[in-house]
Amino acid sequence: MSDTSSDQTIPAASDGVAGVQPLRDGDTSIEPDPTLDPAQAEWDATTALDEGVDPADLDPATATGADPAEIPADDADIPLEDVHPESTGTDSQGQDPGVVELGEEGQGDLAPEDL
Questions:
Q1: With contact defined as beta carbons under 8 Å apart, do 101 and 109 qualify?
Q2: Distance of CA 46 to the CA centre of its chain
Q3: For the residues 84-98, what does the mean pLDDT come to?
Q4: Contact in structure between 109 and 102 (CB atoms under 8 Å)
Q5: What angle do CA 75, 78, 79 make, to 5 degrees?
Q6: For 20-94, where are the alpha helices, taking DSSP H only?
Q7: Phi-psi region of 39 (alpha: psi -120 to 50; beta: other; left: phi over 0)
Q8: 104: helix, coil or strand?
Q9: Between the CA atoms of 62, 65, 68 and 71, what dihedral angle is there, to the nearest 10 degrees?
Q10: Which residue, among 27, 30, 5, has the nearest Cα to 13 in the 3D structure?
Q11: pLDDT in tens, 23-81
Q12: Contact status, residue 67 vs residue 73, Cβ threshold 8 Å
């Protein structure tokens, strides 16, 4: 076994050991800003709770008491003309929905003697 790499596209490190590459900005799982790291935020919240901080202070409620993503927007409603009226029921074209044919192969069909 050798310490040198057989892949010539991997540059040798400054100490002469092949196969070692320096990490670049996108090569790490560590978030550069600790306030954006969810694991760090959870750790800080746990530490604060252990120190006696009120849980309401850690996660203040929104003005509505709900998630802001759940607040309805004006353009989130379905236009009235697109709402299917519930009174029409199934697309039975006036026939009894229980008797309407359900498939090309006859699955669900009722024979005349079953009526």
A1: yes
A2: 25
A3: 63
A4: yes
A5: 95
A6: 38-50, 55-58
A7: alpha
A8: coil
A9: -140
A10: 5
A11: 666 666 666 777 778 888 889 989 999 999 988 888 766 566 666 667 677 776 777 77
A12: no
Residue 61 has what DSSP assignment? P
Burial 49-74 (b: 16+ CB within 10 A, else e): eeeeeeeeeeeeeeeeeeeeeeeeee
- The reported pLDDT for the residue numbered 39 is 84
Yes or no: say if 45 and 58 are a contact pair by the CB < 8 Å rule.
Answer: yes
Task: Give the separation between CA 70 and CA 79, rounded to whole angstroms.
Answer: 19
Q: What is the rounded average pLDDT of the residues 89-97?
A: 63
Q: Look-up: residue for tokens 């306030």?
A: 35
Structure-block tokens of residue 79: 């236009």
Q: What is the pLDDT of residue 1?
A: 47
